[in-house]
């Protein structure tokens, strides 16, 4: 019985194709929030109708470009106050979206509705291994309370291994 385990919600979503902004893909998601658990993320089952395009070539180009930079990438306020994301920072913004998704899944409740509002700050950290590391401060807007909450997130990324969040905490929580 689902009421003994948690609350189940069904969502219908449209995903925008990263490479073709005029194309969307429909998907449905079943989300199960566990009763009484403040620490476990909800269980999510996603079904995609259609096919998502591969980003393999764009991923390799971005990876090679970032690895070749002499100085670590640093950027602020993505998007800017007019909602613009410079094309060269679009991959950084997309990775922030992935990192924020992790924070949102780990910290959502039935009474929150988080949305990535802005990358306040991002800094690339050079590493001795093959991963790219980005230290983000992202601003998450809780649509329910209308609060804007800063989170510090460290994201590791490699085109073959994908994105992994190695650290996340509410900004100021570790001070």
TrEMBL record:
One of its GO terms (cellular component) is extracellular space. InterPro entries: CYSTATIN_LXN, Cystatin_sf, Latexin. PROSITE patterns: CYSTATIN_LXN (PS52033). GO terms for molecular function: metalloendopeptidase inhibitor activity. Keywords: Protease inhibitor, Repeat. Residues 1-57, 74-175 form the Cystatin LXN-type domain. Transmembrane segments: none annotated. It comes from the Eukaryota. Belongs to the protease inhibitor I47 (latexin) family. This is LXN protein. It comes from Promerops cafer (Cape sugarbird). The gene is Lxn.
